[in-house]
Specification:
Strand order of the largest sheet: 2-8-7-6-5-3-4
Largest sheet: 7 strands, mixed
Structural class: alpha/beta
Number of helices: 12
Order of helices and strands: HEHHEHEHEHEHEEEHHHEEHEEEH
Bound molecules: pyridoxal-5'-phosphate
Radius of gyration: 21 Å
CATH architecture of the largest domain: 3-Layer(aba) Sandwich
Shape: globular
CATH class of the largest domain: Alpha Beta
Number of domains: 2
CATH topology of the largest domain: Aspartate Aminotransferase, domain 2
Oligomer: single chain
Length: 394
Amino acid sequence: MAKIASRISQLTGEGALAVFTRAKELEKAGHSIIHLELGEPDFHPAAPVVDALRAAVAEGRDRYVATRGIPPLRSAIAEYLKRTRRLDVAPEQVLVAPGCKMALALAMMSLIEPGDEVLYPDPSFPIYPSFTRGLGAKAVSYALREENKFQPDLAEIAAKITSKTRVLIFNSPNNPTGTVFTEAAIAGIAELAKQHDLWVIADEIYARILFSGEYKSIWALPGMAERTVIIDGFSKSFAMTGWRLGYAVAQKHVIDALDMLVLNTFTCTAEFSQVAAIEALRDSTNAVPAMVEEYRKRRDLFVAKLNRIPGFRCQSPDGAFYAWVNIEETGLPAEEVQRVLLEEAGVAGIAGAAFGVEGKNYLRFSLVSATHQLEDALERIQRVSSRWRAAVAR
Ligand code: PLP
């Protein structure tokens, strides 16, 4: 039989989806499930954004458009990055894609050669190592450890750079730990990138979901704009996951390379969603700060109460909407804790190995349910854990 290309066997999926499928099965069988497994906001886009989409469709804004995105959206993104991140970005340095993942794939395809080495954080978004391998390159992890507050260890990164290292990826705030890299960490990464002539892919998808301070992008550091590709989009900050809207920001010659891939693949991102995205960036109802405030309440509630349950330990995340929970002291493997919580308590979380080997003693819970549901989830976790503690004591 004709063969599938070998690069496909190098790719892996996302663990969250397996848990989601099982949780749905249990729900169908009549169980009550609290879904904390997917990284999907429970909010929807603000009303003016939905109105703008309706109007765009009604006006016939449903044509093939410029491959790199409609000019007004590219300008609006450049202006938005100036307003929210103080970045000096020109519209021609922006390319719109259907989702951050697509922008990431375009950037990786444009920068990585077979045989290259790519540094990526562990734990992190599982697509980084998967797609690296799919491109015939070697994925080399650097650890984000609890004893270091999940910050990168610059000495470890330096030691892992070889003559083959071409790209360093990082994601701040990080999925799954919620860590915002310190200014010192970002400056250290920038120095290493300049010293070893590396590209940096900065996945800033959670940049707006920040609980204190101002977002500091590596792009703004001296000498970094020319070697950085920012990946961002609308899925998380504007609760627009299914709209499939993301973008890449880079120097024009890099954007030209990404654009060639767009032309050869999906041609363009849907015109009507791009028109509505301009309204999202305007955020005329202040939906983003209100959403972030709600995530902050959920974080404070979940982390404080979870830390009171014996066996569970969680540092308070500085951004994003995940709780990264150490379960070592339960005495059970994370996969077993995941199973018991789902099957016996009806709480869906993900065993941390889905995000890399450093995640083996952790579970990730997405704080994408209302506070009363989170309180219910915590009570359920408490009940189940006291049952298993009693069983161990017997
Ligand atoms: N990057 C990170 C770190 C993510 O967590 C996600 C989604 O979970 C993505 C990228 C993908 O974003 P999008 O849905 O816009 O493709």
